[in-house]
Amino acid sequence: MRSAAPCDAKASVGRLTRTGRQILDLADRAVPRSIIGWFVVCWGTFLLASVVVGALLLSLYEQSTTEQLRRASAAVAHGCDAIAARYQFFTTGATRAPADVHDPDLTRGLTGVVQIALRDLNGVEGGIWQRGEGSLAYAFPTYEGTGQKTDLPEAELPSIREAADTAALDGAPFDRRREGRAQTLLLHACPLPGPVPGLSAWTMARVPTTGGQAYIQAMAGLSVLLLVVLGSAAWLGRLLLGWSRRLQRVEAALTSSNDELPKLDLTGQRDLDRIVEAINRAGIRLAEARRTSEALVRQVAEANRLATLGRVVAGVAHEIRNPIAAMRLKAENAVAAGPDLARKDNALRVIVEQIGRLETLLRNLLSSVQRAPLVALPVKDVAAFLTERIELFREQAAEQGLELEVCGGGAEARFDPARIAQAIDNLILNAIQNTPAGGRVTLSAERIGDRMALSVADTGRGVPEEVRAHLFEPFVTGRSEGTGLGLAVVREIAEAHGGTVRAVHRSDGTVFVLELPWRPS
């Protein structure tokens, strides 16, 4: 409960400091860019909408033109078929060709055929053509000019001749489409079987692509959009210029300050003045909070340092006190033994063991706080490396009735052999100490992607539930005689190599997995 107040104070100081920094950043950089950027985004959105609307207008114009072309193409094809049907009716009962194809009566009859066939097709003109003789009839019933149009269009005469002759020769319909700058010409010809040889019908329509109603509407809409975009750009530019000048004055005042927020003058712009007043108020609060927070931070840091040092000293004192007490007791027994040499030898042996325990404690303690530089060397055979480590504990394991074995790991790798050997030794010793007689300790190595996993598995009693969350922290152990530094050293060595160490808790024991970057030699 005593540490709650410093923690709350530290959190409050941190929040005030972050708030002050955010306000400084807002005043120094974000405000000018965000406000101007907001205007630019708004205008950019409007511009995008205008572009989309303009694209829609053009698309509608193109669709309208496409639809007109489709309808005109269908009309000329239908007109040609209508002429063919009327001509077939006109020549019913005729068995031979007339002597003169230019006979006035025949011309009037054929012209009537064309007029009747095209009278309901707006904008479609057509006629009857004989290969080698030319036009026999022509009509444009829906002509919008004054009077009746009876003369062939001279400009399109070569195209008409080509289409009509081709249809007559091939005995099949013929289509031609010619694109112009202001209009598209659609021409269709179809053969006319009957008593007159080489005869064909043709129809023609013109579809305006520029200058028509759809084109005028599209251009008018685009012109209005252009005027609106230019007008809005000029209006927003004027607004941005005014904002930019005011923001430059605020930025200059903020840039001239060092640690404290200066008192800013009002700009005369209502929205910006609210920000200026907020910055001025925040500057006053920040100055007061900074003075308070600096004192609290120093107090909290000192309290944390003392608490950490206290935990370390308490752990070391506890670990040293047990071997010293054992050595004292055995020394007193040796003194009281008198001439009993066996009793004295036993006491000296115990004292030597406790001294070794103290040396192990100090070595692990130094390893956990000192990070020596890594010396990465190629290890040609990881299996041989693991076998070498396990042979050091073969005799100790045999005394406890345990089996040691190595599985896998024949590939090459690159790491610090001395440091990894120390980590493996700690894990093997930990497994031996936690495995009852008849159990097994297994070392293995395998490559998992771009990492190498060194595993030490035992069939022991497992890690107590209450220490699993802090297993790799210093002075945390599940055994009364343990120092709680071996696994902490393993973690330090793994992190020094850029790897990790973890424990896998199973029903039949524990597996410690040391994962390192593969770094093949």
Explain what this protein looks like in three dimensions.
It is a single chain. The chain has 521 residues and is an alpha+beta fold. Among the domains are: 86-212, Beta-Lactamase, CATH 3.30.450.20; 317-365; 372-517, Histidine kinase-like ATPase, C-terminal domain (Heat Shock Protein 90, 2-Layer Sandwich), CATH 3.30.565.10. Helices cover 58% and strands 16% of the residues. The chain is built from ten helices and twelve strands. It has helices spanning 4-90, 104-118, 157-170, 213-255, 270-337, 341-369, 382-391, 394-399, 417-433, 486-496; strands at residues 124-130, 134-139, 174-179, 183-191, 199-208, 377-379, 403-408, 413-415, 440-448, 451-458, 500-506, 509-517. The strands form three sheets. The protein has a five-stranded antiparallel beta sheet with strand order 2-1-5-4-3, with helices on both faces. Helix 5 (270-337) runs antiparallel to helix 6, helix 6 packs parallel to helix 10 and helix 9 runs antiparallel to helix 10. The model is unreliable at 1-14 (pLDDT under 50).
Topology, element by element:
Layout: H1 4-90, H2 104-118, E1 124-130, E2 134-139, H3 157-170, E3 174-179, E4 183-191, E5 199-208, H4 213-255, H5 270-337, H6 341-369, E6 377-379, H7 382-391, H8 394-399, E7 403-408, E8 413-415, H9 417-433, E9 440-448, E10 451-458, H10 486-496, E11 500-506, E12 509-517
Parallel strand pairs: 7-9
Antiparallel strand pairs: 1-2, 1-5, 3-4, 4-5, 6-8, 9-10, 10-12, 11-12
Helix pairs in contact: 1-2, 1-4, 1-5, 5-6, 6-10, 7-9, 9-10
